[in-house]
Design a protein that fits this description.
By secondary structure, the protein is an alpha/beta fold. The protein has two domains: 258 residues, Metallo-dependent phosphatases (Purple Acid Phosphatase, chain A, domain 2), CATH 3.60.21.10; 168 residues, Flavocytochrome C3, Chain A (Flavocytochrome C3, Chain A, domain 2). The protein is built from 20 helices and 16 strands. The chain has a seven-stranded mixed sheet with strand order 1-7-8-10-11-13-12, with helices on one face. β3, α3 and β4 form a beta-alpha-beta unit. α3 packs antiparallel against α9 and α12 packs antiparallel against α13.
Length: 512
Amino acid sequence: MRPFAVRGSHLTIFFLAAVLAAGSSGCVPSDESSKRQSGGTSTTAAQGQPRTFRIVVSGDTRGFIVPCGCASKQLGGLPRRATFLGSLSEDRLYVDAGGSAARAFEYDRLKVEFIWRGMESMSVAALNLGASEVAFGKEFLDTAIAKADLPFVSSNVCDENGVPLVPTFRRLEVGGARVALLGVCSASYAGGEGLRLIEPKEALREPIEQLRPGVDLLILLAQAPEAELRVLAETYPELDAVLATGQSQPISPRLLHERTLLAGVGIKGKFLASVPWHPEGGHPEGGPPEGERHRWVPGEGRIVEVADSIPEHAELTALVGEYQVALRNASLPPEKTGEVVTLLASLPGDYRYAGSESCLTCHELEGDIWKKSPHAHGLETLDEKGFEADPYCVRCHTTGYGGPGGYRTLTERRTRGGVGCESCHGPSQAHMRSPETRSTSARASEACITCHDPENSPEFSFDVYWPKIVHGKRRKPEVLNSAAVGGSPDPPTQRAADENHQRSNAGISKDE
């Protein structure tokens, strides 16, 4: 993928020829891993005049290449992230604290390929292995990392023999500052098959001792709970910054113990942390005396909302289009997506989805109301945006995604596409065969919030939304006459529907 303009960040990257020899409890590099860590031949670069530069941190993208788009003003997305990075005028260092995917299904593997391609285009200087990367396991990561050719880093992720999976640190120069980047993932997260997570406090000891004398800034990228981040900052006062993810909300940039900067970016790629670093004093000769370091101090950092006010970068938007095509071509079965609907454990084994058309014979009036509602056209709204094959979207825009007899792929769009009767009332095949059998034992209204959640439907209120689809016992003539349901039925049809509903009351889950 052709890189775009934000690569102009004046970074001179050079890797260490020497490798870390960690203790028995940590990652012990083999000869092969030593070559990977050093990047081949070691190079050096003359340090330039110190100048202000900016560190920008992302993390916990969690598979959100772009926001789902179900609501306005949603935050996040790689196209906006790229535009923000390209708008910076000073030298900048873009890093990611890890957590690119949400889980480790085939769907997540496909997503992470495109997320990493996007980060490559944004010239990410270091990408930490976080919880979701580690969950993939060694076999997938070995292949994906070799294919991506990105500057991965991890100081505590090893294979079962203690060999580091990726370089344990990265060194580079930006704004005249010699920077070393380390990365850790909390050992509280589950490691994937073939991988070990060394306790970060133990894994960081030797690299910090080795790196500190030769760099101006020592920065840790981490995915870990905030309490653990604070312990690491306290344990290693040599750290100039801990830049992290692993919290539900961002951590505004702040100093800990008046020496270590802490900043966190929250979840789903909605926020970035942006911190300028300024040289304190100066050395006219272009560098500090032998054995001394430039002193760099952080300026006023901020959390950046990746909001819809930031234009979407054209090249990353094109990448989203490629992702959509890849999803359609993959035609992933639901069991490989992690998005399958959850059924009540108490349901008998013969409960299956039968499709909305099966409901209409007896529930004619309710069917007419449904056909004229937005629910019936849920899958069509995804067609308009190109996400009709994206499981995260499809699960809420179809009926019974991945459940027994429910929607699976685009081939079932005519019978299971859209938010059908069973999306609220549950699998109805047993009820269709025997009306006295209830569809589910749950209240239909409780199904609403599985999709109308704060993320995708922030203004949802049952009392406001219900009149738009009112039917069954709670239907009201004045609502039926409204445009929301397309007009009122004639009285005989109304009476027949009432009688039919009374006969099958025992078999339908509804709001009382």
